[in-house]
Amino acid sequence: MPSLESIMQANSKKYVGINYEGATHGFLRAQDDPKATRDVAEEAANLAATKDGWPKTIVFLKKNLGVK
Description:
Blueprint: H1 2-10, H2 27-30, H3 40-65
């Protein structure tokens, strides 16, 4: 993440990076993936990340795409 942040800054791009502890990569999409064994802690982390991240995503898109 630090190298990505420096690249974005060097190119004058708006960027906010957040790592949600325990959440998997692609946590929003991964919530309905079938698994042989449930990982309740991972599911809880993915849900918490979604609840925090999705509203922030909507605000970012509206702000940067000019949508009202």
